[in-house]
Design goal:
By secondary structure, this protein is α/β, with parallel strands linked by helices. The protein has three domains: 276 residues, Metallo-dependent phosphatases (Purple Acid Phosphatase, chain A, domain 2); 87 residues, no CATH class; 55 residues. Helix content is 33%, strand content 20%. The strands form three sheets. The protein has a six-stranded mixed sheet. Helix 3 links the parallel strand 3 and strand 4. The longest helix has 23 residues. The radius of gyration is 25 Å and the shape is globular. The relative contact order is 0.11.
Length: 435
């Protein structure tokens, strides 16, 4: 029996963004929810290191939250310290006998550089059983037309590595990656064959050969999606440590203990849900709004919900609430402004009295349920319209513009590039909706 732990997407250094109180968890060190992720990571590393007969620990990317594609900031110092502490804890408790295998995700990397914060702050020689694979390793494997794998002859186990790679960004990448992927198909069944990948079908960062059962891997460990999910018989996302935003609150985060029978290749899966260690209220609260509601009526509805988080003990970074209000009803422009104005004032009031309100984050979203959308130019409506018939509509638009300018270009190519840009922008918009 081969025993492996599969984890992913720790996002050390993640800090809540909008609508948070400026309050340090540890003075000049970390912020409240940031610290909770550090504590969770160390608890997991300690728990995993004590699993009996553990053969491998696999992390499928995004140990750090920063840097990323849209942020060049390095991980904060507490994040780097936490990683070092976690590694030290794991290797000490396992007497340096259990390999820790890590692939790079899309977070925690400096784009265009040959190194990452992971390796610039970790002394690899200190951890002989630490194996790290980044995008550069993948590119070199593609250039040399060789597989990217890690083999343990004593255990008869092979890991096939797929660090995050935007192989569909350019046509040359797509072709080269398609050709190279064939090298990742196991050549024999003598070994237990495990794929380790960071990517998703949703944003086209996971190749269809990895997503399918075509290569007959015995187990596929996936990272990038933050909720625990079984994709097929043996394809799993473990999820992160804790939910990072309100969308993820209604998913589960976990690490997975996988036992693989050497003879039958039968899997025994045990899931340890890490979101259970979340101490704080992390909730979306619905507020029904009618056109007749006065400001006082709306405030009363809000305060009825907030009263639950009013404590005599004052603000406690360990369990302070993260709240998001959903205002739902027939929302005119005037009512929209009214709600936004009220919420800004109330948030300032709550955050200026930390001795009274145990609230870490307070944000809101307004939903108009009216059936008339003629005058609605919100991003959501625009997005629905653009995606209805994007190819035809965008091609018509390009043709019109080129005719006006008397310019000769390849309309099909321009349409293709334009649609890629639009769809990418809309994915970013969708991602930014939930914080």
């Amino acid at each position: 029996m081969v025993k492996m732990v599969h984890m992913s997407d720790s996002h050390l250094g993640y800090r809540t963004r909008r609508g948070t109180i400026i309050k340090w968890a540890i003075e000049n060190y970390s912020k409240p929810y940031e610290q909770e992720i550090y504590d969770g990571f160390l608890k997991i590393m300690n728990d995993v290191s004590k699993i009996k007969d553990l053969d491998f620990l696999v992390h499928c990317g995004d140990i750090f939250h920063h840097p990323s594609k849209y942020s060049s900031y390095p991980p904060p110092e507490p994040a780097r310290r936490t990683l070092k502490q976690g590694l030290q804890l794991f290797f000490n408790n396992t007497n340096n006998q259990v390999p820790f295998i890590y692939i790079e995700g899309n977070h925690g990397i400096f784009r265009g550089y040959e190194y990452t914060p992971f390796e610039s702050h970790i002394d690899k020689d200190q951890y002989p059983n630490l194996y790290y694979f980044k995008e550069r390793d993948l590119i070199e494997a593609i250039k040399s037309n060789k597989p990217l794998l890690l083999e343990f002859q004593n255990k008869k186990v092979r890991f096939y590595l797929y660090p995050y790679f935007e192989f569909k960004s350019f046509e040359t990448y797509t072709s080269a990656y398609d050709n190279w992927v064939q090298n990742q198909q196991p050549k024999d069944s003598e070994y237990i064959n495990i794929a380790v990948a960071h990517g998703s079908v949703g944003d086209e960062s996971l190749h269809n050969k990895v997503n399918s059962d075509d290569f007959n891997y015995d187990y596929v460990a996936l990272g990038h999606e933050h909720g625990y999910k079984q994709i097929s018989r043996n394809h799993y996302y473990s999820g992160g440590i804790l939910p990072l935003n309100f969308k993820e609150r209604y998913e589960n985060q976990a690490y997975i203990i996988v036992d693989i029978d050497e003879k039958t290749r039968e899997l025994t899966i045990k899931t340890e849900f890490t979101d259970k260690i979340l101490k704080r209220v992390f909730e979306i609260i619905k507020i029904d709004v009618s056109p007749q509601d006065s400001s006082r009526d709306i405030i009363r509805k809000i305060e009825n919900e907030v009263n639950e988080y009013t404590l005599n003990e004052g603000f406690n970074h360990n369990n302070s609430a993260r709240l998001k209000f959903h205002f739902v009803g027939e929302i005119s422009f005037e009512k929209n402004w009214q709600i936004n104005d009220l919420m800004l004032k109330l948030r300032r009031e709550y955050f200026s009295q930390p001795e009274r309100y145990n609230i870490l984050q307070l944000i809101w979203k307004i939903f108009d349920i009216s059936e008339t959308h003629e005058d609605d130019i919100s991003a959501g409506i625009i997005q629905d319209y653009i995606l209805e018939k994007p190819d035809d509509e965008f091609k018509t638009f390009v043709n019109e513009k080129l005719s006006e300018d008397n310019t000769e270009y390849n309309v099909d190519k321009l349409t293709e590039f334009g649609l890629k840009a639009i769809k990418k922008a809309l994915r970013i918009m969708e991602k930014e909706k939930e914080v």
